[in-house]
């Protein structure tokens, strides 16, 4: 069984959304909380993981992250509420 990768969406304290990819969602979320994640989450505190999707390859996860980042907010909210 190979390594898995994930695309995830975080709810941010100002009600915005942040999308990223990782091989360990929980570990990455804690890195964001500690200010060791992305520049955006250093300035805007994450509240919780609201979406995650598993992939077999890093490339697939990165492509999904790119796709999600270009969606309008309403489409991102639809993903979260699935």
Give short descriptive properties of this protein.
82 residues, alpha+beta, GIY-YIG endonuclease
Q: Would you write up a description of this structure?
A:
By secondary structure, the chain is α+β, with helices and mostly antiparallel strands. It is 41% helix and 29% strand. The protein has helices spanning 25-33, 39-43, 58-69, 73-80, and strands at 5-12, 17-22, 46-55. It has a 3-stranded antiparallel β-sheet, with helices on both faces. A hairpin with a 4-residue loop joins strand 1 and strand 2. The longest helix has 12 residues, at 58-69. The termini are far apart. The model has no long low-confidence stretch (mean pLDDT 95).
């Amino acid at each position: 069984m190979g390594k898995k990768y994930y695309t995830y969406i975080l709810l941010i304290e100002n009600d915005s959304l942040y999308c990223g990819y990782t091989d360990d969602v929980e570990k990455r979320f804690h890195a964001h909380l500690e200010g060791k994640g992305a520049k955006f989450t250093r300035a805007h505190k994450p509240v919780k993981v609201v979406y995650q999707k598993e992939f077999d390859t890093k490339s697939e996860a990165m492509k999904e992250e790119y796709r999600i980042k270009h969606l309008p907010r309403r489409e991102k909210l639809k993903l979260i509420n699935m």
